[in-house]
């Protein structure tokens, strides 16, 4: 494991801590970034929060209902070929 870099900061009267710029830059944490604060045996851990809970594909597969005729790959190929013919006729390709 890589050696952790150290820096010093001060707790404000409002309970705020300023993270050193080098740390923010290294983590790509911009203004407004939401962080999870965890208390550990060694101190406090800051982790970026995720906008969505992690999910696996099996839990979301098929959740969107499709209506109407289902397209086949041949339909896509024909539509692409037709568009290419039209563009070629207009001198675009």
Topology:
Layout: H1 21-27, E1 35-39, E2 44-48, H2 57-60, H3 73-89
Antiparallel strand pairs: 1-2
Structural overview:
- The chain is α+β, with helices and mostly antiparallel strands.
- The protein is built from three helices and two strands.
- Strands 1-2 form a two-stranded antiparallel ribbon.
- A hairpin with a 4-residue loop joins β1 and β2.
- The model has no long low-confidence stretch (mean pLDDT 88).
Query: What amount of the residues lies in strands?
Result: 5-15%
| Multimer state | single chain
Structural class: alpha+beta
List low-pLDDT spans.
none
Count of DSSP-assigned helices: 3
Write down the secondary-structure element order.
HEEHH
Shape: elongated
The biggest beta sheet reads:
2 strands, antiparallel
The total beta strand count reads 2
Which strand order spans the largest sheet, edge to edge or round the barrel?
1-2
Helix content: 25-40%
Alpha-carbon distance between the two ends: 54 Å
Backbone CA Rg: 26 Å
Mean pLDDT: 88
Quick structural overview:
The protein has 93 residues and is an alpha+beta fold.
Give the key terms.
93 residues; alpha+beta; 11% strand; elongated
């Amino acid at each position: 494991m890589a050696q952790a870099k150290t820096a010093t900061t001060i707790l404000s009267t409002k309970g705020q801590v300023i993270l050193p710029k080098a740390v923010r830059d290294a983590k790509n944490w911009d203004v407004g970034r939401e962080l999870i604060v965890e208390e550990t045996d060694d101190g406090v851990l800051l982790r970026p929060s995720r906008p969505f809970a992690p999910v696996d594909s099996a839990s979301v597969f098929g959740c969107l209902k499709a209506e109407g005729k289902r397209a086949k790959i041949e339909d896509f190929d024909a539509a692409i070929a037709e568009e290419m013919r039209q563009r070629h006729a207009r001198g675009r390709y």
